[in-house]
Design brief:
heterodimer; A: alpha+beta; ATP Synthase, domain 1; 9-stranded mixed sheet; 2 helices; about 30% helix; about 45% strand; elongated; B: alpha/beta; Helix Hairpins; Pyruvate Kinase, Chain: A, domain 1; 5-stranded mixed sheet
Chain lengths: ~130, ~290
């Protein structure tokens, strides 16, 4: 039996979830990671993607998170997201608009660094789009 | 002396005004509740952000800190971000913020510093434009925005950070009104660049060494702009709550004043009506006596 730990998902607008969970899968910048109780203290940034939460009851909930960072200690995992919502509530049309906007932005004259950044972000968003559709 | 008809008109118009102010008060009360809820909902994020920030900064040495935190090492050019409401009719709410910003500007100018003003909200712009037409570098209106979201704050933050990166200013101060209660809003100035680590946050020492992914510097680099956005977001939310609170009490006052005025006018009206009746009676009686 897996041990439970406290998980919090907070966006600037509200607190989405704060409860005991079994495990959380987050898409960190350096690859996906699964957080379980007793995880080594870690601080990581998050790329846009899915967060899968396995509740204490065993059911899973999925959230769409657009960037942010996670603060993980052995007893808690706090996820501060720039914007977060459940998969059901997520506005896919807005995501598509954002992707289109980014594409035009990349096509316009950006300097090299900004361009790489935007392209990376676009990559995350399109992956997310594929996963969702 | 006003005639009876004039008085009647006057009373009717004051009554109409009273209805409007009463309605505005009720609308403000409803909006205030929503604004307070929004401010409440945003609090956990800001608190945790502060805690995490304190944690990360504790582990990083001074020279590695990103520019937004260190500042440019000078304080010659100041950017004042003045957040005010979009609408008036809320007592001294807007003018208080503007006054604080104005005093600050004068002080800085007297010291020979350069000042740039970034207005968020129309009212502040209207007030400050009169005195410092040349200092206003940019402005944002949130008139169309019904419910202030994080995206609005992010936009403002992006502008501020962009202009910092272009080296257009050294110190950035945020002006807004702290929402204390419905009847008291305190205009506040808060420095956001170079970022000061919130002193009121206690660093939770878990005793363990954090692993950073990517390294602490990169995280901080990502964190600071976000923190600035959060602070602006918080200021905007507090402002909305404060504006609604101020509007509520201003409209409450107005309603009460209108009530007083109606009372006074009604008394005058009745006295005059009595006087007229008496006069007419005297005329009739003296006419009858003469016969």
């Amino acid at each position: 039996m897996a041990q439970n730990f406290n998980f919090e998902l907070v966006s600037p607008e509200r607190l989405l979830i704060s409860e005991e969970v079994q495990q959380v899968v987050i898409s960190a910048t350096e690859g996906e990671m699964t957080v379980m109780a007793g995880h080594a203290p870690t601080m990581t940034t998050i790329k846009p993607g899915l967060v899968t939460v396995k509740r204490a009851s065993g059911e899973t909930v999925r959230f769409v998170v657009l960037g942010g960072f996670a603060d993980i200690t052995p007893e808690t995992c706090r996820l501060l997201a720039e914007s977060a919502s459940t998969v059901e509530d997520f506005d896919k049309a807005a995501l598509q608009r954002r992707i289109a906007e980014l594409r035009t932005e990349i096509d316009s004259n950006l300097d090299h660094e900004a361009r790489t950044k935007a392209e990376e972000f676009l990559g995350h968003l399109t992956t997310l789009n594929h996963v969702l559709s | 002396m006003a005639s009876l008809k004039d008085l009647r008109n006057r009373i009717a118009s004051v009554k109409a005004t009273q209805k409007i102010t009463k309605a505005m008060q009720m609308v403000a009360a409803a909006k205030l509740r929503r604004a307070q809820e929004a401010a409440e909902a945003a609090r956990p994020y800001a608190e945790r952000m502060g805690a995490v920030l304190a944690n990360v900064t504790a582990s990083i040495s001074g020279d590695d800190a990103p520019a937004l935190m260190r500042g440019t090492g000078k304080d010659d050019v100041h950017l004042l971000v003045v957040c005010t409401a979009e609408r008036g009719l809320c007592g001294s709410f807007n003018s208080q913020i503007a006054r604080l910003a104005r005093d600050h500007t004068r002080e800085l100018l007297a010291k020979g510093k350069q000042v740039k003003i970034f207005c968020v909200g129309r009212k502040g712009y209207d007030i400050l434009r009169r005195e410092f037409p040349n200092l206003i570098s940019d402005r944002v209106e949130l008139r169309e925005v019904k419910q202030i979201g994080f995206a609005n704050a992010n936009e403002i933050a992006a502008k501020v950070i962009g202009s910092f990166e272009r080296g257009e200013f050294d110190v950035c101060t945020l002006f807004y009104s702290q929402f204390k209660s419905v009847i008291s809003q305190i205009p506040t100035a808060k420095q956001i660049i170079p970022a000061a680590v919130p002193a009121d946050v206690t660093v939770v020492d878990t005793g363990a060494v954090y692993e950073y992914e990517p390294d602490a510097g990169a995280i901080l680099e990502d964190l600071i702009p976000r923190n600035i956005a959060v602070q602006i977001f918080r200021a905007l939310l507090e402002n909305v709550a404060g504006e609604m609170g101020a509007k509520m009490s201003a409209m409450d006052n107005a309603t009460r004043n209108a009530g007083e005025m109606i009372n006074k006018l009604t008394i005058t009206y009745n006295r005059q009506r009595q006087a007229q009746i008496t006069k007419e009676l005297i005329e009739i009686i003296s006419g009858a006596e003469a016969l």
